[in-house]
Design goal:
mainly alpha, disordered N terminus, Ferritin, about 180 residues
Length: about 180
């Protein structure tokens, strides 16, 4: 123990700091997707991705809070600019699904880094994110199916979101605390 804080493996700290950048980049990408749909006057698709952007930002903030609680230094990196142009209503969702799959691989790797270092508290912390990624991939896969079917009639995708996604919470119960509280 260092003071009253648990010792977190340095390999995990370094990997989690990299993931913070990935989460902020994902948030930026989702803002770009939302703006694309907003410009196309597809408000439900835009709202879906604005919520996704907030969720990804909150994931980064949860990771920051974990590092702060562990007495480790969070590093807030710069991120590359997101893709902002898309050919149709399908391309942004396909990009989002690829992004969610990539993040699933990244959080699984983070859990493995923690386990390999014998840092079981950090491994446990990552278990929430692993479960979250299963849900995110399923959700994005469903949305990709819908927008693909509705490619020539985007209002069908809007109707699906109005019907199936009304009132979704930003983060499910049991989510780790985020730095800055519920901002």
């Amino acid at each position: 123990m260092v003071g009253s804080r648990a010792v977190t493996a340095q390999a995990f700290i370094d990997a989690l700091n990299e993931q913070i950048g990935e989460e902020f980049a994902a948030s930026q990408q989702y803002v770009a997707v939302a703006v694309h749909y907003d410009a196309q006057t597809l408000p439900r698709l835009a709202a879906f991705f604005y919520r996704q952007a907030i969720e990804e930002r909150n994931h980064a903030m949860m990771m920051i809070q974990y590092l702060l609680d562990a007495g480790a230094e969070p590093v807030i990196p710069s991120v590359a600019g997101p893709q902002t142009r898309f050919d149709d209503i399908v391309a942004p969702v396909a990009l989002a699904l690829d992004q969610e799959r990539r993040v699933a691989d990244q959080v699984t790797r983070l859990a493995a880094v923690a386990r390999d270092a014998g840092d079981y508290a950090s491994e446990q912390f990552m278990s929430w994110f692993i479960k979250e990624q299963v849900e995110e991939i399923a959700s994005m896969n469903d949305l990709l199916t819908v927008v693909t079917r509705a490619q020539n009639d985007p209002m069908r995708a809007e109707e699906f979101l109005a019907r199936e996604r009304a009132g979704e919470a930003a983060e499910p119960a049991g989510a780790p605390a985020a730095a800055g509280g519920a901002l």
